[in-house]
Task: structure prediction
Amino acid sequence: MCTMGIVLTGHHFAHRDELVHVELHDATFRDRVFVTTITAGLLKVYVPFAEDRIIMDQVLGGWALSIYVPSLEHVAHIEVLALRWLFQQMTSIVTHTLNWNCLPAHASVGQGVLLYRALQLLYLDDAAQTLRPQVMYEIKLKPLSMTDVQRIWWAFQYTEEWGEWLNVMLRNLAYFNVYSDLSDGSYIRLFIETEMLQLTPAEQDYIEGLYRYHKEEFRKEGFAGTAKAYVKWALGLVKWENRDLHREYPAPFTVRCNLAVARRR
Result:
């Protein structure tokens, strides 16, 4: 089998040494955001899904790989950074003849979120599903920083995973009493309150209620802030359940992808 290029249609090839412009687009296709350039050969080896999606872009006058995202609102802070980081790792792998299982190490929850998001966008599902529970677990270990919260919110707010990430994030803020932290707490509160202004009243009520729920759960157990609480939560023994808190909470809501389009109208 020929491995010198990526087959497009018919007899068209992007040869392995040719550069491919990687860009992001939303459902409207009105705007596109440039990410980086990478050789077709690297995409062929490490990003199998790209094989049938590289096209000759007449506007650019070269090869292009366009990747869909639900919203372009915060891609400069999330998807662009994430993809550039992962593509740099791919280049390093080739340069140093490393195995592809050498994913870049992440030193924080925020970095883990970026890496997970990049793996998702490139349909590297096995690696993404291996990383996801690791990042989820790390959220239980220590208070989230402002950067961690920002990246969780902006990375997942338009995805079907949003409810799960929102839940574990609010649990962290409630358990570690992050809002009272003098360094990051006030900034985190301001960030969340600002983002919530873009949500519907029902979604705002849900988030506020879920945060209060987690605060009440730790308080009712009578061990908030103790080692016992930490161990139980880290081991997953403190569950999110619809117990009597004077209102019934539904399962975490899913923010629809078209919400981003509706907000811009």
The longest strand covers residues 32-39. The beta strands are 5-7, 13-15, 19-25, 32-39, 54-57, 62-68. The radius of gyration is 21 Å. Residues 201-221 form the longest helix (21 residues).
